[in-house]
TrEMBL record:
InterPro entries: Acyl-CoA_dehydrogenase, Acyl-CoA_Oxase/DH_mid-dom, Acyl-CoA_Oxase/DH_mid-dom_sf, AcylCo_DH-like_C, AcylCo_DH/oxidase_C, AcylCoA_DH/ox_N, AcylCoA_DH/ox_N_sf, AcylCoA_DH/oxidase_NM_dom_sf. It comes from Shewanella benthica KT99. Its EC number is 1.3.8.7, 1.3.8.8. Signal peptide: none annotated. Residues 471-755 form the Acyl-CoA dehydrogenase C-terminal bacterial-type domain. Its cofactor is FAD. This is Acyl-coenzyme A dehydrogenase. It is an enzyme of class 1 (oxidoreductase). Belongs to the acyl-CoA dehydrogenase family.
Amino acid sequence: MTLFILALLIIIVLFGVKNIRMQLVTRPVFSFFKQVLPPLSDTEKEAMEAGDVWWEGELFRGKPNWEILHSYGKPTLTAEEQAFLDNQVVTALTMIDDYDIVQKRKDLPPELWQYFKDEGFFALIIPKQYGGKAFSAYANSTIVSKLASRSVSAAVTVMVPNSLGPGELLTHYGTQEQREHWLPKLASGEAIPCFALTGPEAGSDAGAIPDEGIVCRQEFEGEEVLGLKLNWDKRYITLAPVATVLGLAFQMRDPDALLGDKEALGITCALIPTDHAGVKIGQRHNPLNMAFMNGTTQGEDVFIPLDWIIGGPQYAGRGWRMLVECLSAGRGISLPALATASGHTATKTTTAYSYVRHQFGLSIGNFEGVQEALARIIANTYQLEAARRLTTTGIDLKVKPSVVTAIAKYHMTEMSRDVLNDAMDIQSGKGIQLGPKNYLGHPYMANPISITVEGANILTRSLMIFGQGATRCHPYVLAEMETAAMDDNEAALERFDSLLLNHIGYAARNAFSSVFCALTASRFNPTPVSGETQQYYKDMSRLSSALAFMTDVSMLIMGGDLKRKEMLSARMGDVLSELYLGSATLKMFEDNGRQHDDLPAVRYVMATRLHKAAKALEGVLRNFPNRLVAWVMRALIFPLGNHFKGVTDKMAIDLVQGMLKPGPARDRITFLCPEFEGDTSGIAEVEAAFIAQFNCKQIHKKIKTAQRSGALPKKMSNLPLFQLAHETQVIDAVELESVLAADKLRLAAINVDDFSSL
């Protein structure tokens, strides 16, 4: 006890007396901090400063306030947005024949192009005063998703003008003159935009683009003006082959000091008509055989006035920050919309197909092997829809959550890949035989496109999610980094001293919370709800504390090396991502009114999220370079072992059984794959067969009972069996008519396209 009291007194003096603390703690720690501080490039600094911290900040700090999550509200559509979906979008869907678009035309039909222009599909994000729709991110996402349920090529064609590009950049940063000139043309479809960022030497490292714009004087429209001489070579540019206006990102240089004393001004964005002298629109690419326009563009010694810089000359060199802040549209709206559409389509068609496809005398949905894969499809779709809703909610709240949108882009496109793989496994021959009735083939082929664009997924996971999240979301690290960069060392020390005290208290709280929650099964963590889901909130809070504690220890031990430990930082990013996805799931359950028939999906999803988050924590501990520190962290995070074991077989079976029937729960995660009159995609066909077969459930039960009793033979094909059942009065004439009609629909649904020649 004496030693304990003595140690406590030393700690109190050491940290409680400022002069002693400054000399013995703050000054040495500050010196050490500056040594281990990871070097940041200019583009990294701009990325850190751009965008906003949103819900991910709560998750990262170890003590999420769940009331904040629930306060964000439920995403809804305005009357105008709903009317557009009910009318223009449905009409567009009736005009889409994706087999014709992809396999024959390699383009959208002219009438669909014109309809998209006339009805404002390219103007979803443009303000109304310029002729646009000014729709919400949620509406934008819903429109793209519904189009994607029938054609990825059509959806991409619509999403690009409403994603990162001239329309969004002009809306946020354009001069009044630029907006008045270009936005009405973009809204009406008179101008078709593309945005050229990626080149042969700069993909995910967009900040390294070699394309240049040199400040110079040259004649333009009869007079000498100050402008830029541009040279560029870009590829993978969607809509480039048909674009009339080109957004261009380039490095701006001023070697002759015509604007000031700074030669390298940085990345800049400009807007250039494609018929301008020197602009070259190159040949088309063939992105996995999809029909949306994608190609190259080059320019050699193209002169433009400075006024063509988006935002005007005052935005010279500010292009990277503009791009980072606007990436939310592509990462948070468009690509997640495509992914969610894949989930809705796969769930709708695969549950239906599993019910109507029979093998060994049973619907294949009754086989546990099929149920295992089908459960993953359904759960991933529930998760995709939840993440889509929460992410667009953030964007509609006018925040620019760069970390959240990176999480959404990476995890949702990967889930889409998993969903399509499982759907292909179950539907097998139905999925691989291309034709007008194949609704899986083209999305399956196109999926890797989403994986690679807007930042390749591997680098998004290993560099962006945790790399930005750890610094942006941490309550003290970014401020400490800014302090370390201050010129006045004494002022920096004074500020660092205050930050350090708070940081130590924060780290100690998270360490204590981690071990206390582990020992008490999170029993005392606060929760905003009662009932079955309350434990999920408590467990998420526990893992949040563990992540915050592990992050502080990792930064302390590895410092700048953590930036290069991509596998470790990716795993910590996975923890943050799983917590975000789990949050989205719980919020959607609340937004849906805590529907009882949603619980099987929530159980499956949350068991998966918690298991994956804990597994990622274990992965960090297993690979942490300092083994002694790893042992201490394990003792605090998992003192009783990792009990987050994931889903059980019962969870999977319960989930599937609830979805192999029509009902509200199934409707809630398939509504982005709508039904409409005249649908020739094969989706309406398999859905009609499913409904008809389900409605004949009791008739089939009568026949099965008769077979078991010996009144009807056990081995007989359907048509003679049904006729014999009627003749032996097992079923009546009305029932016979129903079962024959349902079987006709079943055969049509399981059949595939064939051709006399290809």
